[in-house]
Amino acid sequence: MIKPEYHVFVCTSSRINGTQKGYCHSNASSEIVTNFLESIEENDISDKVMVTNTGCLGLCNDGPIVIVYPEGTWYGKVTPDDVDEIVESHLINGEIVKRLEI
Length: 102
Fold this sequence. Notes:
single chain; alpha+beta; four-stranded mixed β-sheet
């Protein structure tokens, strides 16, 4: 893969031992990752966007957390239903989804 235009990080509360538990995991963060992968594929931008799950980012009150680089935009309280909007607005059109921004 060439260097992506965007790198999306999704907190899935992954632990070093591989288990997933915690606030983001219990609030559908694994589904959020799946939805990103599917939406990116459906919009034919998989050559421009990489998705990575992360361990705890420490903002559990705002979780699930999604971070988009290179801008470093942090989104909070993201639901699986928000993914298509983030993909279309931010990853395709370059516009931050203000209602989710932390």
